[in-house]
Specification:
The chain has 282 residues and is of the alpha/beta class. The protein has ten helices and eight strands.
Amino acid sequence: MDSNGPESWLIDVDFEQPPQVDLRTDRAHSARVYDYLLGGKTNFPADREVGDQVLADLPAARAGAAAARAVMHRMVRRLAGQHGVRQFLDVGTGIPTAPNLHEIAQEVDPACRVVYVDNDPIVLAHSRALLSSTPEGRTAYVEGDLRDPGKFLADPGVAATLDLSEPVALTLINIVHFLSDEAAHPPVRELLEALPAGSFLALSAGTADNAPEAALRGARRYREAGIEVYPRSRAEVEGFFAGLELDDPGVVLINRWHPELGEPTAQDEAEVSVYGGLARKP
């Protein structure tokens, strides 16, 4: 979508002036802490304080964040290139960081369509980067929360961008570990039920399997800042893919998921305390 074209109504933001919303910069937000760990600039003292505390307990957190970003790129390229997916629903988008998901997908096919969903108002403030689609494709940004999929699925921006009668890739990268099983599994199932056969789930989630003490200390730092974190075992992450057809190599540490030649990788497995996988809805 051309953000200056007829579909520009999908998000009513004056990009010359920041939208008048409360960015709640006085408290840490998981998306902004993640941005800080990635070396981004869209974060605030509260976010950096938590990030520094996490790094003190879990120095590998930066490597883990970079690996999660890299695996998202690889998953999207595989979805578009090998599986022929042309529609993406990215929930828990986070701060725009180039290249964004639609840029990766549209490198494969400029006609790819993407809906981004996030509940952090600062993502809305920076959403212009998420709307820079090719003329052949389309992108939209929808404010929403993974815990309430029915609300954002009903947003007109979704219907205007995605055809839910055709396969869609649902991407949940580094988001479900901020929710308990009771809060995470029902909405993930609801989203998958809303998508047709042939759709995919791409998911990554933090784990304490590799470096239990350090990972649990890092999770405690998040909780002290009011951000709940639930590291999961490999079997628990596999539970999100129940009833789906897992793509090779299944649920693995994300540095082992189709690593690409020349891509920077962690030297120590303990530096990547994140599992990931990709699966098709039969």
